[in-house]
Design brief:
Strand order of the largest sheet: 1-5-4
Number of domains: 2
Order of helices and strands: HEEEHEEHEHHEE
CATH topology of the largest domain: Arc Repressor Mutant, subunit A
Distance between the termini: 34 Å
Shape: elongated
CATH superfamily of the largest domain: "Winged helix" DNA-binding domain. Chain C. Domain 1
Number of helices: 5
Structural class: alpha+beta
Helix content: 25-40%
Subcellular location: Cytoplasm
Protein name: Vacuolar protein-sorting-associated protein 25
CATH class of the largest domain: Mainly Alpha
Family: Belongs to the VPS25 family.
Number of strands: 8
GO biological process, one term: protein transport to vacuole involved in ubiquitin-dependent protein catabolic process via the multivesicular body sorting pathway
InterPro entries: ESCRT-II_cplx_Vps25-sub, ESCRT-II_cplx_Vps25-sub_N, WH-like_DNA-bd_sf, WH_DNA-bd_sf
Radius of gyration: 18 Å
CATH architecture of the largest domain: Orthogonal Bundle
Length: about 180
């Protein structure tokens, strides 16, 4: 896993408390959004469980003994949701998917790869897309399966692909 370069704010204790002043708070939330997306991109993770955030180094800076409260994490996740970079996995909004690219962007990235590598008209399994040798240099290599499926659904809606099931596998046919 690549090393995270923490921004200066991460070592600034007030960064871990939502600020009351509107302009300061807006800048703080923007910085958190950027940090969350970068962290999940580098670690190739996708799921945030709000109940377990205090075990996550992203929200828990042990070196300054600061933790971001779960209420603040929810505010940040809601903001990420507004920009298309997160969505709740449950009705209680305790588990979220985080996308460092929006689902449409992921769909475009995957579709462009399929076109450039002559996979249009053929089927790729989800495993081949996220774990296969052909994609080892691609940004979507290692992508969470749920994020992959949601991305491919944007391609289905655009009539560029179809998700298919066969035997015990799932795959996608690119058009």
């Amino acid at each position: 896993m690549a090393e995270i370069e923490w921004p200066w704010q991460y070592s600034f204790p007030p960064f871990f408390t939502l600020q009351p002043h509107a302009d300061t708070r807006a800048k703080q939330i923007a910085a958190w959004k950027s940090l969350v997306l970068e962290y999940y991109r580098i670690t190739k993770q996708a799921v945030v469980d709000v109940r377990e955030i205090h075990t996550n180094p992203l929200f828990n800076n042990a070196s300054i003994n600061r933790k971001l409260p779960s209420e603040a994490v929810l505010v940040i996740l809601e903001e990420l949701g507004k920009s298309g970079n997160a969505s709740p996995l449950d009705k209680t909004k305790q588990r979220w998917l985080v996308y460092w690219h929006t689902l449409e962007e992921w769909g475009d990235i995957i579709y462009n790869w399929a076109q450039e590598n002559s996979f249009t008209g053929s089927v790729c399994t989800f495993f081949e897309l996220t774990q296969g040798e052909d994609t080892s240099e691609q940004e979507f290599h290692g992508l969470d399966t749920e994020v992959l499926i949601r991305s491919l659904k944007t391609l289905e809606a655009a009539r560029k692909a179809e998700i298919i099931s066969f035997d015990d596998n799932q795959g996608v046919k690119f058009f």
